[in-house]
Amino acid sequence: MSSPPVTGPATVRERRGGPGPARFRPRRTPPAGTARPRRRGVLSYWRQYLAISPFYLIFIAFSFFPVFYSLYLAFQRYDGLGTKQFVGLQQFEFLWNDPVFWLSIRNTLVIWVLSTVPTLFGALVLATLLHSVRRFKGFYRIALYVPNVTSIVAVAIFFGAVFSNNFGLVNAILGTVGISPVPWLSNPWLIKLVIALLMTWMWTGYNMIIYLAGLQAIPTQIYEAAKLDGAGPVRTFFQITMPIMRPIILFTVVISTINGLQSFSEPQVLFASNAANQNLGGPGQAGLTTLLYFYQSAFLNNDYGYGAAIVWAFFVLIIVLVVINWRIVQRGRKS
């Protein structure tokens, strides 16, 4: 005598769409007798929003609004006191034909290349050396990072005294070995070199700390395996360390591009740029950067509309260079 087939959730195979194992879905409605939790509206979190509101109010007042107001000023002729006059694209047309603007762009790009390449290379070398140090590692970190937290005005004054044409320390040392004084702050290329050295001295320690953190995150087992396979230090660095560090290098390249193109205080302090000294950037305006030219146009010549046009054109240039650097590093990563 055969028993009747037992049917249940585990044995029922006929389902919509064809045979298959039974599927159970969780109950969407709460069981009877349980209270459904009340939904809290946005206004119920007003205390939390009130606690974080000061940051957003300050950001809107001092960052968000000035940015878009400068874009509005780029299409106006305004001296800061009179009425604004809408001029459309005339500011940008004049900017395109302004030789001083293109001179400032060339100076900025040259200083950026002269400072960024040694900064990143030196930071990577110092981070690699510091990573292998066993004693006094904390002292070396602090000593190399101190220039980044030093006032840029104080550093620029110090470099101006060290590289002075007549009484500078560098020329005094060169004189002891029979070398004639070098016009560090008069020659167009040497002016750019001094500014680049100043920026390199300030930012190498910052990038070194970032690289050191990346090196310390690499597992030691990888280096031990490479050593067992017979890889030397050079091969290990280029075939293991560099590929793993590539995202960090990409980050430092982008940050260094943005910071390096915004050089302003260095040439301003070195050459005492103010309302009484219209020869910004040193002799021949060899150290005139784009932001320094913006400062001259907006705050010395009181042409705020043209100054806003300079800033926005320079912003587009920074975005283009950042994207180019990003693509170059990413292409090397894929290859």
From TrEMBL:
Keywords: Cell membrane, Membrane, Transmembrane, Transmembrane helix, Transport. Residues 1-37 are annotated as: Disordered. The chain crosses the membrane at residues 49-72, 109-130, 142-163, 189-213, 244-264, 304-326. Residues 105-325 form the ABC transmembrane type-1 domain. The keyword Cell cycle does not apply. GO terms for cellular component: plasma membrane. It is found in: Cell membrane. InterPro entries: ABC_transporter_permease, MetI-like, MetI-like_sf. Pfam families: BPD_transp_1. It is a multi-pass membrane protein. GO terms for biological process: transmembrane transport. Belongs to the binding-protein-dependent transport system permease family. This is Lactose transport system permease protein LacF. It comes from Streptomyces chartreusis NRRL 3882.
